[in-house]
Amino acid sequence: MFGLVRTFHKVDEHNGIWLPFGYYLEYDAELLIMRRPNGSFVTAFNAMDADLFEVELAVWEDAD
Asked: CA angle at residue 18 from 22 to 59, to 5 degrees?
């Protein structure tokens, strides 16, 4: 059997998206996953139709 291996890329405050300190975004062709500084899950979005405003809003709401 073959396993499915997903490769995620990481985006943080140094890559042009404004995130609270330490928060970061992992992404691949299908998913955007927001994570807290400790690596725990915040939320996920479909990468094909994600609204970046909604993505940023979700992480700032979590940070409050």
From this structure: 65
